[in-house]
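Recall that a protein's primary structure is simply its ordered list of amino acids. Everything else, from secondary elements to tertiary packing, is in principle encoded there. The following example makes that idea concrete.
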Amino acid sequence: MVFKKSVALILLAASAAIAFSFSAFTGQAADIKLDMKEVNWEIKPGLTTKVWSYGGTVPGTPIIVKKGETVNVSGVNNLPSTTTIHWHGLVIPNDQDGPGKTIKPGEKYSYSFKVNESGTYWYHSHYRPVLDQVDNGLYAPIIVKAPEDDKYSGDHIYVLDDWYLDASGNRLKGTARGDMERFGNIETVNGKSGSAIEPLVMRKGELHKLRFINASTAAIHIIKILGHRFRVTHTDGHPLPQPYETDVLTLSPGERLDAEVAAVGDVGQAYIMESDRSELGIKIPIQYQQGQVATVASPFVVPQPKGFAGIENRTPDFTLDLNSVMDMPSHGANPAPAASAGGHAGHGAPAPSMTNEMKMQGGMRWTINGKSYPDVAALQVKLGQIVKVRIVNNDISTAEKMDHPIHIHGTEFQIVSQNGKAPEREIWKDTVNLPAGEYVDIAFTMTNPGTWMLHCHILDHEDGGMMTTVVAK
C-alpha cells in the first residue's frame, strides 16, 4: 500500500524551533558541529514526543553551503544506539557516503567532503534497521546554493514527514491494521503540524523558491497549492532544461522537488498549500504583507544538456525485477546465523524482518530478482562506464499494489524512458518511483570506486530485503 500524503516546510536551526527560510543567505560556515541526541519535541501545542535528533531539533540542523566548498562535519553520538549518516544525493567518496561508517554510542565522529553540485539534498541515518532511526527523527536538509539562488525574494525548505503516535505522543510500533508499511496518523512540515506550521509570507510581485524534501519512511506526499502555481525547476537537486507549471506536487520517499511560486495574490485573501490528507495536519497558510514590489523575474539558469547520446537505443546492461513474497514460518533445523553488523556487508544490524526470529515466524520479504539482501547479486561496473539499467516493478500480486522508489548512492542517473516512452524533457535524479506494474530505464556512470547501495526508499522494504549494491572498480 502507498499512503498518498503531502507536506511542506521551512529551514535554519533555532533552539526550540526551526525557521527553514532564508533570503540573500551567503552560506553557512562549512565547519559544522553536529551532536546526535535524544530530546522531547513539540509537534503542536499539546502533543510532544521523544525523538532522536541531529543538533536537538527535527528536522536536524540544516547545513547550507555553496557549490565548491569543503564540508567538515563533526560531533558526538549521544544516542543509545550505533548509527551512521548518509548524505543522500551527494556524489562524494565512498568512505564518506555513510552506510559503512558506523558511530557507536559515546563516540566522536567526523566527515569531510567537497560539494561539487548545487541543489537540494538531505542527510539521514542509514544504520539498519533504517526505518526505526529515520522514523525517530534522524534526518535534516543539506542545501548547496547556486549563485542565482540569492536573487529570489525568499528561499524556503519544506521537509515532509509523518508520525505514528498515540494521543499522549508515545511512539506506536509496527503498522496500523491492514498496512504493510509504517504510515503515520499525523503529518508534519519541518517537524510541526496543524496550527504550529509557519505560514509562507509574501508580498505581491515577489518570486519565492520552495524546496520540498520527503523524509517519510513510506508515505507519498501530494501537495496542492490554491490560488497560485508551482513552476518546477529541479528534480532531486538537478535543474530541468524545461521547467513546467503545475498546482500539484507528488514526492515519494527520498525525492526532492524545487519549485518557484510567484506572489500573484492579494492582501486579505485566503491562500494555502495543503496535503490531499489535510485532516492529518498539513495546511500551510500563504499570507500577504501590505505593499507591492516590481515583478521579480526568474533567475533560474537553464542547464546545458548532458544526456548520454544514443542511450535510448541500447540494450540494458542489467535488469532488476522488484517483487515481494510471503515467507512461511521456518521449522526444524536452526536457521543460519544472521549477517554480522557493521560495514557495507552487514550495513549495520540486520533488519527485524530478516532476523532468525522473524524467519521462524514468517512474514513479508521484498526481493530483487527473486532474492533478498544480502543474497542479491551485485551490479559489477567499471569506473566511467555508461551503465543502463531497467527496473521493473512486478509487485502486483498483493491486494495492495506496491510502489517502489529506488535510490542509488554515489551517482545521479538520467531517466531514459518510463514504460518505453522517453520523458518530455531531460531528467536527472537519484531516486525514482516505480508504481506497480511499470518499468523505467535509467543510465549513469560511477565516478568514485567502491561498493554503493541501491535500494527501495520505502524503508520497510529496504529493511525487508529490497536492496543490492553497485560495485564500481
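The radius of gyration is 21 Å. The longest helix spans residues 130-135.
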